[in-house]
Amino acid sequence: AFKEKEIYCRTPNLKESIISTGARFDYWKGLVYVLKAFEVLMKEGEIPFNTQLIIFGNYASDDPEGKAYYELLKGLIKDSPFKERIFLYRGTQNKEVRAIYRISACHKMPYIAFSLREGYNLMVDEALTQGAAVLTSNVGGLKRFKDDQAALVAPIFNIVEGIPSITPLQPEGELFLPVLNILINRLREFF
User: Fold this and answer.
1) Per-residue pLDDT tens for 41-94?
2) Calpha distance 42→44 (Å, rounded)
3) What predicted TM-score, i.e. pTM, was given to this entire model?
4) What's the CA gap between 55 and 168, in Å, rounded?
5) 3-state secondary structure at position 63
């Protein structure tokens, strides 16, 4: 069972479809892309109307960028037309994370690991172990995944490789929409 955490003191309806994504709250982890793709697909009616999005993660207490990114996510959710369908959890425990993966799997919804820069990303392996389908990018350690039954890969490597700063990938940056559209098009394949 979920403990009520942080935003709006709400818990998701576990009987309804849940898309999940999780990572350290960091600009390079692509959580804003997942949130924006969810909004586009909800607005266009391309995913079931009762679908929910769970974003979970954490940041180190000595990481001002992590806290700033978390606050950015909170603000985007607060302004979202689908804010009642979006849940942001900070400080989730291993047991809760495994439950989130299993809930996504139960509803045949994806766990999304859409990093813009990545090391190995053990969370994808954990999601697969819990039975969740995965949509991932093809950067860093995530290149180990190929399109198959367990994972869909959003090919963003050629766009993001070698970019020295996050600026062009921010919502107002020139690369945001091209990368977002790749994610949206891959997500459509789940529905």
Assistant:
1) 999 999 999 999 999 999 888 888 889 999 999 999 999 999 999 999 998 888
2) 5
3) 0.91
4) 23
5) coil
Q: Where do we find the tokens 């009987």?
A: 15
Q: Collect all residues with Cβ–Cβ distance below 8 Å to 127 and sequence separation of at least 6.
A: 20, 101, 104, 111, 113, 134
Q: At 20, which helix (H) or strand (E)?
A: strand 18-24
**Amino acid letter, 166:** I
Amino acid at 52: Q
Contact between residue 146 and residue 162 where contact means Cβ atoms under 8 Å apart: no
126 neighbors 98 (Cβ within 8 angstroms):
yes
**Residues in CB range of 177: below 8 A, 6 or more apart:** none
Question: Are 127 and 99 within 8 A, CB to CB?
Answer: no
Q: Hey, is 152 helix, strand or coil?
A: strand
Q: What are φ and ψ of residue 11, in 5° steps?
A: -125, 150
What's the CA gap between 85 and 26, in Å, rounded?
Answer: 22
DSSP state of 6: S
Torsion angle (degrees, nearest 10) of CA 112, 116, 121, 126 = 0
How far apart, in whole angstroms, are the C-alpha atoms of residue 140 and residue 121? 9
CA–CA separation, 114 and 137 (whole Å): 5
Handedness of CA 56, 82, 136, 118 (dihedral sign): negative
